[in-house]
Amino acid sequence: MKNFLIVKLSAIGDVLHALPVAYALKDRYPDCHISWVVEPAAYEILKMVPVIDELILFKKKEFRSLGGFMQNFGPLRRQLQKRHYDVSLDLQGLFKSAAITWVAGAKEKIGTCFMREGSDKISRPVVGPNARNHVIEQYLDVARALGCNGDQIKFGIEVPEREQDIARRLLAQCGMNASNPYVALVIGASSPNKRWTSEGFAKLSDWLYEQRLIPVMVGGGPREEQWAQEIEYMTDVPPVNLVGRTTLPQLAAVLQGAAVTVCGDTGPGHLSLALGTKTIMLIGPTNINRTGPYTQMENAVQISRDCRYCWKRSCPKGLDKECMEDITVDMVARKIKEIY
């Protein structure tokens, strides 16, 4: 039996992109044991993936002080070294993942084509045929280097029935029946330049009600709660508001039950894709060919500016409008009509 160690720590979207690697390994080596090192943000997602045999939690914040490092390094090292790994796959490609990979001490250490911060000195970079293609294929090239096929994109997240029940109750508390068709609106993003406008979400929400589709806002954190209030204020009839009210597994259940999800290039949007929900991803500064909705590229709505794919958190040109403002409600509504 082969023992594999996957090191992909964060963020949520990046961890989701790496999930097909675990399934490629299991397809090729059905009896293998897969351990995965992950940070707390994505831990609950990987708990819902049955092909992962062991999760090793890396609490990065606890290692930032000397005292925290001294207290936590020993237990982490013992957990990493209790199993003799045949191969480690560093899919993060940073100093922190390289350090974890080195401590684990696998016989063979390989990584992706974009290794940085000296991680290529610990793990051998795999530069496959997809080095310039979508990140999912870049990760799968690492699995292919181990003899895996990697032709099928499998995520295999299984949302527990208990979390589905809680999600249904949360929707019921908001006055709706989860069996009625609804559209999940992921109103936040990790950077301002990746987020659609509150006005856009508000107008779309009113349009959805006209189509007899219930708009349900999802997300978390104080900033997104503020955006949810802005959207409610701008609408004729406020959308259902679950922002800040769900855990990650409950969010997965809400997204799984949605008729459609509307989102930016953000973690919950990629979670919706991984769950197989029809997902309209609004793309501004990020490169659709690298991180777009790989399994549903036809459902992407992207800006037409020549400066798209700049990857900037805010517009570097100081233009009057952020790029995401170029995406209109009509553009999103037409896409919803196409797929629903």
CATH superfamily of the largest domain: Glycogen Phosphorylase B
Q: Which CATH architecture of the largest domain would you pick?
A: 3-Layer(aba) Sandwich
- Largest pleated sheet: 6 strands, parallel
Mean pLDDT level:
91
Description:
The protein is α/β, with parallel strands linked by helices and 340 residues long. Helix content is 39%, strand content 15%. The protein has twelve helices and twelve strands. The strands form two sheets. Strands 3-2-1-4-5-6 form a six-stranded parallel sheet, with helices on both faces. It has a six-stranded parallel sheet with strand order 9-8-7-10-11-12, sandwiched between helices. Strand 10, helix 10 and strand 11 form a beta-alpha-beta unit. The radius of gyration is 21 Å and the shape is globular.
Secondary-structure blueprint of this entry?
Blueprint: E1 3-7, H1 12-28, E2 33-38, H2 40-46, E3 54-57, H3 66-81, E4 87-90, H4 95-104, E5 108-111, E6 124-125, H5 135-144, H6 161-173, E7 182-186, H7 198-210, E8 214-218, H8 222-234, E9 240-241, H9 248-257, E10 260-264, H10 267-274, E11 279-283, H11 288-291, E12 300-302, H12 329-339
Parallel strand pairs: 1-2, 1-4, 2-3, 4-5, 5-6, 7-8, 7-10, 8-9, 10-11, 11-12
Helix pairs in contact: 1-5, 1-10, 6-9, 7-8, 7-12
